[in-house]
Design brief:
Number of strands: 13
Shape: elongated
Low-confidence stretches: none
Largest sheet: 7 strands, parallel
Number of helices: 15
Structural class: alpha/beta
Helix content: 40-55%
Distance between the termini: 16 Å
Order of helices and strands: EHEHEHEHEHEHEHEHEHEHEHEHEHHH
Radius of gyration: 21 Å
């Protein structure tokens, strides 16, 4: 197959990580894969560094430059299909009328309803397949008008890393100024209201009554940072919260943690949680969105009610006091990712979706 993937996001988030995994996985399986990416984007740079052919475009002017480039590529370079990886890409591919020539596939990674405008509907009606990253996302899309027969669930994937050595853990803790005997909670994600980091800070204030040296490491930047810093000061725990900002070598965050926390209030799936579990870090998440599809409560991690400080604190206390249970949950989490959420499994599933989308064309030939 010859695949053209389109992603016009400038920032590097979970969806862009998945795009790069798809591109690399396709090439490893003997397929050809190019990407149309926003000029100066992190994804474009990372793809080029991985030997992927990148077509850089401006994403301005209502996505028209990107649409023109996609139209040119589809018309002249014999791609078998076009895969839009995020919302700006969906618009650009649809404007390019690529679906008139080859199958058009859309990745759907959010639980919000589809737009009600004729333009929003037309884009999804043009798709041969809509790839939802969880059953919850598929159900939300279908409930808001997506055609159920076009929807396919493909869970996002994480690479299974080597386990951290004692030396790596010590170096990571030293980087963040953490003394060896102080337990560390952590979260990786953009600082936004629906990501729920506020509840971690509130929980930390309570937990430090039992664990005086407890720290919270927040990796990520975003519009809520000042409010979160103000909340930490108000609760008298500012010195116990490490606001790391965006961390490029994010493995140095995971290596420092004793417990990973994901307090998202509205989550389609989450690459950070998958990574933490793959690193064998015992993890706690809110029982919201698709997070219950990742963690089996009490077996591969713990789930708590959203925005419930008492319940969240109880779960953290359990893991900090019961080291044997924490170890078992960490090991089970890694097995869960390997079994259901590995990058290899994700790419194999994507290839199957591509082949299904191409079947009608091949039958005509």
């Amino acid at each position: 197959m010859r695949v053209l993937l389109v992603d016009l996001e400038m920032v590097w988030r979970g969806g862009q990580n998945q795009a790069l995994l798809i591109l690399k996985g396709l090439q490893a399986r003997g397929h050809s894969a190019d990407i149309v990416a926003a000029r100066g984007s992190q994804l474009g740079e990372n793809a080029a560094a991985s030997g992927i052919r990148v077509h850089s475009v401006s994403r301005g002017l209502m996505r028209l430059p990107a649409a023109a480039k996609i139209r040119e590529l589809v018309s002249h370079e014999r791609f078998d299909l076009v895969h839009a990886n995020e919302a700006h890409a969906v618009t650009a591919v649809w404007l390019a009328r690529a679906h008139k020539h080859v199958p058009f596939l859309i990745s759907r990674r959010v639980g919000y309803p589809l737009g009600k405008s004729r333009l929003a509907r037309a884009r999804y009606e043009a798709a041969a397949r809509i790839i939802a990253n969880s059953q919850w996302v598929a159900d939300q899309a279908a409930a808001s008008g997506a055609q159920r027969e076009k929807l396919t669930v493909v869970y996002e994937g994480a690479e299974i890393p080597p386990r951290f050595t004692i030396e790596q853990k010590q170096a990571a803790r030293a980087r963040w100024g953490i003394e060896d005997d102080n337990p560390v909670l952590g979260c990786v994600g953009v600082l936004l209201p629906d990501k729920g980091q506020e509840w971690l800070i509130r929980a930390l204030a309570e937990l430090r009554k039992d664990f005086a040296g407890l720290k919270l490491l927040l990796a990520g930047d975003g519009p809520c940072q000042k409010q979160l810093e103000a909340l930490a000061r108000e609760l008298g725990i500012y010195e116990a919260v490490i606001f790391a900002g965006f961390v490029k070598d994010v493995e140095s965050v995971y290596a420092a943690l004793d417990v990973f926390l994901l307090p998202s209030l509205f989550e389609a799936l989450n690459n950070s949680l998958l990574a933490a579990m793959a690193y064998e870090i015992p993890s706690i998440a809110f029982r919201r969105g698709a997070l219950g599809e990742i963690i089996e409560d009490g077996k591969s991690g713990l789930l708590t009610s959203a925005a419930d400080t008492d319940e969240l604190c109880a779960a953290v206390r359990t893991l900090l006091r019961d080291h044997a249970l924490a170890k078992l949950l960490g090991e089970a989490g890694r097995r869960q990712v390997r079994k259901c959420f590995s990058a290899e499994r994700m790419v194999d599933s994507i290839v199957c979706v591509y082949e299904e989308a191409l079947k009608p064309l091949r039958m005509k030939r």
